[in-house]
């Protein structure tokens, strides 16, 4: 029942760039899609120990994608300043992923 359901609030306080520009949502949605694809692989036992509930995966995908996108934006803004456009961010996605999740998270058997 709705009375028994509790809302879970996740706050992503990862610093982002100081400029928003068209196309950043495309990076965010692509990142969510990548994380959800990895979640499906986890659900299918391609990796992991199965200790995490699959029902949490969409929330984790959204939070992880937000962290990567915000970090990507910050890195690009630090380099390009106010002239940054979304295209400048593309080469920084991998670097942002490593910054957020660590170098070891880049590997894997997939």
* Principal-axes shape call: globular
- Radius of gyration, rounded? 16 Å
Which percent range describes the beta-strand content?
under 5%
Count of distinct strands: 0
**How many helices does DSSP assign?**
4
| Succession of helices and strands | HHHH
- The averaged pLDDT comes out at 91
Regions with little confidence, pLDDT below 50 for 5+ residues: none
Main sheet characteristics = none
Distance between the termini: 40 Å
Helix content: 40-55%
Supply the helix-strand structural class. Answer: mainly alpha
Architecture overview:
By secondary structure, the protein is mainly alpha-helical. About 50% of the residues lie in helices and about 0% in strands. The protein has helices at about 25-45, 55-80, 85-90, 95-100. Helix 1 (about 25-45) packs antiparallel against helix 2 (about 55-80) and helix 2 packs across helix 4 (about 95-100). It is globular and about 45 Å long.
Structural descriptors:
110 residues, mainly alpha, 4 helices
Q: How are the elements arranged and paired?
A:
Layout: H1 24-43, H2 57-80, H3 86-89, H4 93-101
Describe, in short, the structure shown:
The chain has 110 residues and is mainly alpha-helical. The chain is built from four helices and no strands. The longest helix is centred in the middle third of the chain and has 24 residues, at 57-80.
């Amino acid at each position: 029942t709705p009375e028994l359901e509790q809302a879970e609030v996740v706050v992503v306080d990862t610093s982002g760039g100081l400029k928003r520009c068209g196309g950043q949502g495309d990076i965010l949605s692509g990142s969510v899609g990548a994380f959800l694809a990895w979640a499906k692989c986890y659900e299918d036992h391609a990796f992991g120990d199965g200790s995490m509930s699959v029902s949490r995966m969409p929330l984790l995908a959204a939070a992880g994608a937000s962290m990567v996108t915000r970090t990507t934006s910050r890195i690009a803004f630090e380099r390009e300043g106010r002239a940054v456009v979304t295209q400048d961010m593309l080469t920084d996605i991998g670097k942002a992923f490593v910054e957020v999740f660590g170098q070891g998270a880049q590997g894997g058997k997939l």
